[in-house]
Amino acid sequence: MSKFKAILISRDEDKKQSVEMTEIDDADLMDGDVTIAIEATTVNYKDGLAITGKSPVVRHWPMIPGIDFSGKVIDSSHEDFAVGDDVILNGFGVGETHWGAYAEKARVKGDWLIKRPANISAKEAMSIGTAGYTAMLCVLALQNHAITPDRGPIIVTGANGGVGSVAISILAKLGYHVIASTGRPQEEAFLKDLGAGEIIDRNTLSEPGKPLGRENWAGGVDAVGSQTLANVLAQTKYGGAVAACGLAQGFDLPATVMPFILRGVSLLGIDSVMAPKSIREEAWSRLASDLDRDKLASLTTEISFEDLIPTAHDIVDGKVRGRVVAMMGA
Question: What's the pTM value of the predicted model, to 2 decimals?
Answer without folding.
Answer: 0.91
